[in-house]
Design a protein that fits this description.
Distance between the termini: 48 Å
Number of strands: 12
CATH architecture of the largest domain: 3-Layer(aba) Sandwich
CATH superfamily of the largest domain: Type I PLP-dependent aspartate aminotransferase-like (Major domain)
Strand content: 5-15%
CATH topology of the largest domain: Aspartate Aminotransferase, domain 2
Radius of gyration: 21 Å
Number of helices: 13
Shape: globular
Structural class: alpha/beta
Bound molecules: pyridoxal-5'-phosphate
Order of helices and strands: HHEHHEHEHEHEHEEEHHHEHEEEH
Strand order of the largest sheet: 2-8-7-6-5-3-4
């Protein structure tokens, strides 16, 4: 059967993830050191795993409330209040989701009418543009540059705002650049959002992973912004809980209610064991997060230093666990560089254009892998660069 006219146009228009395509090439190759997939190399801290195991032993195998366990929502409210300085009501302003991924999808589907424009800064996480398109929106990327530390500037944002603009998506620290946004930049952006009546989805998934004691501001905490923000956060990165698939959205009650309708019919609720584990993470996980962060910090410094020593220009990422070296001087496209690096040295890094056109000329190297592997990957990369 010819399926080309059977698949929805919306879905057909979406390309497969550039990261996954690249990493299919790596599958089954024992010799490859992967700086690819953005996932902590740490197993989830034992006490968190134990909480999930114990919940199974106790027979906690049922659905939970659609919004998520009330105990967890209360803990989220208190954590978000302390960490981001924004107060949300556990009863109707917090929804527990299947990862931040689901929360992004829910928010976009809840907010967009067909043809509405969603602005986001690029290079960005691979799911943003496809999620917008699948929610019948129009994706409007704004390129950020290395000279601005890949932060979004209000001036660049204002240029793309039209009467159809409805949502702005922000992600600081940013995947793939590790960029953090200075408070002043966010204040200018917030003023534009108020002026043009935009709703902001702020993806805070890397917020715990900010280095050098740099302060972090969530745009949701700025005056007048809580009412127009959906704060998205989760457990995958800082708590090393990717496989638990747990995230949450905090927003004004009418937005959470709209998101809840979609969640209720499509997902029903996030898995009980993951919610129990997340409860333990919020109650007792701070020490483990601090230890993992310390380790990422050392790896970041090492990787950036080695890249500089081999003559590769690379801005110092303020957060997350990625470095985004500039490989333009080698006169190759990102894909060609990444393919040659893989073929000639068995080191896998993601071509920057997987994160949007403005990522062309860069490479994403994830340092959420062991120091031993990072040292070896840098040695191999150095030898490769000498041949160019
Ligand atoms: N947002 C960003 C910026 C990410 O980098 C990722 C995962 O890499 C996600 C969301 C998805 O997170 P989750 O595992 O919570 O679905």
């Amino acid at each position: 059967m010819d399926y080309s006219d059977k698949i929805s146009a919306q879905v057909a228009a979406v390309p497969r993830s550039g990261i996954r395509d690249f990493f299919e090439l790596v599958q089954g190759r024992e010799d490859v050191i992967s700086l690819g997939v953005g996932e902590p190399d740490f197993a989830t801290p034992w006490h968190i795993r134990e909480a999930a195991i114990y919940s199974l032993e106790k027979g906690q195998t049922s659905y939970t409330s659609n919004l998520g366990l009330l105990k967890l929502r209360k803990l989220i409210a208190s954590y978000v209040g302390d960490f981001f300085d924004v107060a949300y009501q556990p009863a109707d302003e917090i929804l527990v989701s299947v990862g931040v991924s689901e929360a992004i999808d829910l928010a976009l589907r809840a907010l967009l009418n067909p043809g509405d424009e969603v602005i986001y800064h690029e290079p960005c996480y691979v799911s943003y543009s496809p999620s917008i398109v699948m929610a019948h929106g129009v994706a409007v990327p704004v390129a950020t540059s290395k000279s601005d530390g890949f932060s979004l500037k209000a001036e660049a944002l204002e240029k793309v705002i039209t009467s159809r603009s409805r949502v702005l998506m922000l992600n600081f620290p940013t995947n793939p650049t590790g960029a953090i946004a200075p408070r002043e930049d966010l204040e200018e952006i917030a003023a534009l959002c108020i002026k043009h009546d935009l709703i902001v989805l702020t993806d805070e998934i890397y917020s715990e992973l900010i280095y050098d004691d740099a302060p972090h501001t969530s745009i949701a905490s700025l005056p007048g912004m809580k009412e127009r923000c959906v704060l998205l956060h989760g457990f995958s990165k800082a708590f090393a809980m990717t496989g638990f698939r747990l995230g949450y959205a905090c927003a004004p009650a009418p937005i959470i209610d709209a998101m809840m309708k979609i969640h209720q019919y499509s997902m029903l609720c996030a898995p009980m064991q993951s919610q129990v584990a997340a409860t333990e993470a919020l109650e007792n996980g701070a020490k483990a997060v601090a230890e993992m962060k310390k380790s990422y910090h050392q790896r970041r410094d090492y990787m950036v230093r080695r890249l500089h020593e081999m003559g590769i220009d690379c801005h110092l990422p303020g957060g997350a666990f990625y470095v985004f070296p500039d490989i333009r001087k080698f006169g190759m496209k990102s894909k060609e560089f990444a393919m040659r690096l893989l073929e000639e040295t068995s080191v896998a890094a993601v071509p920057g254009d997987a994160f949007g056109d403005s990522g062309e000329g860069f490479l994403r190297c994830c340092y959420a892998t062991s120091m031993e592997k990072i040292v070896e990957a840098m040695n191999r990369m150095e030898a490769f660069v000498k041949t160019l």
